Amino acid sequence: MSFSIKRVRALTIKEFKSFTKNSNVLLMSLLPILFSILYTYIYGGKAEDVPKTDIFMLCLNMNLSMVASFVIGMLIAEEKEKNTLRTLLLSGVSSMEFLTGKVTVTLLITVITNIIMFFITGMETQYLGWFLFFSLLVIISMIIIGAIIGMISPSQMSTGVIGLPVIMLFLLIPMLAEYNDNLKKVAKFTPNYNMNLLLKQTFKGEALSSADLPALATIAVWIVLTAILFAFTYSKIGIDK
Amino acid sequence: MSYIIDLENVQKNFQKKTALKNLNAKVAEGEIFGFLGPSGAGKTTTIKLLTSQLLPSAGSVKVFGKEVYSNKKSLYQQIGVLSDNSGLYDRLSVWDNLALYARLFEIPDSRITEILDKVGLTESQKTEARKLSKGMKQRLMLARAVLHRPRLLFLDEPTAALDPGTALEIHKLLLKLNKEGTTIFLTTHNMEEADKLCHRVAFLNDGEIVETGNSAELKLKYITDDITVILKGNNEKIHLKNSPETGRKLMDWMNNGSLLSVHTMEPSLEKIFLMLTGREL
């Protein structure tokens, strides 16, 4: 399979130009930022009611499930729906080059959104490094899941239907786990919940210990599992079906 | 003669349906070759095989002397494809749509300027693709297909659903490209278009080629004996069968000075297709 950095660069530039004019994707990407502004404005200065860590965590999980997963899924599905993917492939672009362009733009948007929200909600800058590291690990599996959704979905609209369980699993379950023991048991197997545990500990200023290994291992297992699922889906249906 | 396309005993099956049966065709460099047939005859399947989007069930599909599937990378550098399911980036401008492909093929921007001029879209280069008319979109897609100066251009129904004026513009562009050396493989069910553009045509029916040849030669081959006579005065057209009786009538009209003209009945490509298959296009 051919891979050219120049072609990936051309595709990434196209993605950014298109992103700025895609109202669906733009709105979806801006929602977590808007929520972080809104919650900070509403609950600002009332840390005893809703700590800023909780506000940040809520917006972060929204960004990871809605932007990291959905945006790449929508971008891939749109190219199939409008037959632009077929034209690209007939111009010698390989599936991997095509996907790398999509992953690059999604990754950058997600990370930049995360950083913006980090500062909007007033998190301490000293934790930025650890935050970026833990969230990046989860972003990887979220993007892979999004790419799978994009491969399966024939159109932008259908990414919503197919992707809904993803939101349920990765956004709602970790969020509601605090209120329900059964959900908590399920949440322990999700990467987002484990990321939340690690981040909360980090934001409290506590050092990581061997007790945190299961959480890190769960996140790593998700990366491996989603990569295997991606490879399987790709081998079965390819990128352009 | 060197053949740029060589299809030998090609078969393509889709589950229980056979789309192509024992297809044989050769296209020489510099030709405009028309692949004609009704919807569902196998035209698009043939283009998909030739562009390595599908694998043949049997037979050999060669482009530039090599099996297409084993030679994809080099193939895509040398071909351009414009099909009815080609797409544009709606939100990007005309220029940006072409700029992407210029970067992919490592072509300088001067070529974009040149091709925009050729397809008459220079003034619309900043317009978003979604705001273009159907004809302009088709011209943009054609510009994109030939941006990298391909040796071989595949066109799948290039003027379907276009108004006659726009179709005429596309025809002019295609003739110009061919004059510059681009070989064109064209599928259409528009016989008038094929007659006007193609050096040779092949009639495809139910996945089989039923006739191949130069349009003028085919018309001669399938010419009927019927004649049309126009008499002076009322300009009435009289259709007659070739027979001794017709000969006598012609002599009479000539002798009494009432004969204006005699025409042989040259069949159209559409009529030849009907004669060969019993099917209308």
Automatic annotation (TrEMBL), chain A:
It is a multi-pass membrane protein. It comes from the Bacteria. The chain crosses the membrane at residues 24-43, 55-77, 98-121, 127-152, 159-177, 213-234. Residues 57-229 form the ABC-2 type transporter transmembrane domain. Its main location: membrane. It is found in: Membrane. GO terms for cellular component: membrane. Pfam families: ABC2_membrane_3. One of its GO terms (molecular function) is ABC-type transporter activity. InterPro entries: ABC2_TM. Keywords: Membrane, Transmembrane, Transmembrane helix. This is ABC-2 type transport system permease protein. It comes from Anaerocolumna xylanovorans DSM 12503. The lineage of its organism: Bacteria, Bacillati, Bacillota, Clostridia, Lachnospirales.
From TrEMBL, chain B:
Residues 5-231 form the ABC transporter domain. Keywords: ATP-binding, Cell membrane, Membrane, Nucleotide-binding, Translocase, Transport. Pfam families: ABC_tran. It comes from Anaerocolumna xylanovorans DSM 12503. GO terms for molecular function: ATP binding; ATP hydrolysis activity. It comes from the Bacteria. It is found in: Cell membrane. GO terms for cellular component: plasma membrane. This is ABC-2 type transport system ATP-binding protein. PANTHER family: ABC TRANSPORTER ATP-BINDING PROTEIN, ABC TRANSPORTER, ATP-BINDING PROTEIN. InterPro entries: AAA+_ATPase (IPR003593), ABC_transporter-like_ATP-bd (IPR003439), ABC_transporter-like_CS (IPR017871), ABC_transporter_ATP-binding (IPR050763), P-loop_NTPase (IPR027417). PROSITE patterns: ABC_TRANSPORTER_1, ABC_TRANSPORTER_2.
